Inverse folding.
């Protein structure tokens, strides 16, 4: 309860502070033959680091979702659970239905909704990529019937959306046939990562819950290595509160690759790996983070420790030197790389070489570091050999 209260306080703080980072833009559309208002959130670090790129998130129904999404995006970035994002919210037509309407006898988009679909694909995303430093990772977020529109982007032959986020979705009666026609397994041919998030909620009508449940059960049968299907169920008393819960839950899943290695990730993907494969997994994880999210994090220290036991305990520690060299390349001023190389030589009873690296590592440490004494024990131990 305390954690939820603190998160709420932080979000309220975000709402009051991020407005200075929001740009309003009237985008002229050749497709819609009119202008549309865009609200664009730019992270506060955008101007400070002119090289860094940011994943792009496109929000339908900006009047409903934009502020909530931005607030949660800031919170999760602060907690190192997601990268900082460039977020664009699109105002819908005054009648709204024109942008998201579909034929109730077939599920196909109406003419005006198809125009809006193309406007987002060919003009909004093009404008954002042409004028801002965006990374290749694109999310698209919709609520209610606009969530139904989000699913239509699955039909593109060339995949350009990474995350399809459907909040409190109101699907057409033909959603099952449509998803089958979009042939989601085709995404496994792409050298990329994809996510489809849908949420159900106890506050929805029985009819809506049933339809979403049928969609989620149908999707759960798909086993596509690079396409994560996230079927969420939220216990809540109102549809509005379901939005507030679904958005951060969706982001946490969509950006799970960005986060530090969790217990679940370790158990599922790392635990049974050889030392060589564990090192490769760690290197590849951070290469993917840099490519998809435009963020060069190096490698988090906690993730180094996450695979430490595998490297030390398996294969007689033969990969400790490679592990240490990898760390020294990333963090030349850290004693960790020297420690692992020293441990490699000590394990092989090459004590003089081990002592050399332990001394180098100790020389990099601040005497006030609480770990300095423990590190020095390695030197004392080898001097007795």
């Amino acid at each position: 309860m305390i954690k939820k209260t603190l998160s709420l306080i932080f979000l309220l703080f975000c709402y009051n502070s991020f407005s200075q980072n929001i740009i309003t833009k009237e985008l002229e559309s050749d497709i819609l033959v009119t202008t549309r208002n865009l609200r664009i959130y730019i992270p506060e670090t955008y101007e400070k680091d002119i090289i860094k790129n940011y994943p792009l998130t496109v929000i339908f129904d900006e009047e409903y979702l934009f502020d909530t999404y931005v607030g949660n995006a800031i919170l999760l970035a602060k907690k190192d659970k997601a990268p900082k994002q460039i977020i664009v919210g699109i105002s819908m037509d005054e009648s709204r239905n024109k942008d998201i309407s579909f034929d109730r006898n077939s599920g196909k988009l109406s003419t005006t909704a198809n125009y809006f679909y193309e406007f987002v694909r060919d003009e909004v995303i093009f404008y954002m990529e042409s004028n801002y430093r965006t990374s290749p990772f694109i999310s698209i977020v919709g609520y209610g019937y606009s969530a139904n529109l989000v699913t239509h982007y699955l039909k593109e032959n060339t995949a350009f959306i990474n995350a399809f986020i459907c909040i409190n979705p109101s699907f057409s009666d033909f959603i099952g046939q449509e998803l089958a026609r979009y042939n989601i397994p085709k995404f496994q041919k792409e050298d990329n990562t994809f996510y489809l998030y849908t949420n159900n909620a106890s506050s929805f009508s029985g009819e809506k819950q049933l339809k979403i449940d049928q969609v989620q059960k149908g999707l759960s049968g798909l086993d596509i290595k690079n396409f994560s299907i996230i079927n969420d169920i939220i216990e809540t008393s109102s549809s509005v509160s379901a939005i507030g819960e679904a958005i951060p839950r969706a982001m946490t899943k969509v950006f799970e690759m960005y986060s530090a290695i969790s217990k679940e990730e370790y158990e599922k993907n790392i635990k049974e790996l050889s030392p060589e494969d564990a090192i490769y997994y760690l290197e590849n994880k951070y290469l993917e983070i840099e490519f998809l999210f435009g963020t060069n994090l190096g490698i988090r220290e906690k993730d180094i420790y996450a695979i430490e036991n595998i490297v030390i305990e398996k294969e007689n520690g033969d990969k400790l030197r490679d592990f240490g060299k990898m760390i020294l390349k990333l963090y030349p001023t850290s004693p960790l790389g020297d420690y692992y190389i020293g441990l490699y030589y000590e394990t092989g009873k090459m004590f003089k070489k081990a002592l050399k690296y332990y001394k180098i590592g100790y020389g990099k440490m601040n005497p006030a570091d609480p770990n300095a004494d423990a590190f020095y024990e390695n030197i004392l131990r080898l001097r007795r050999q």
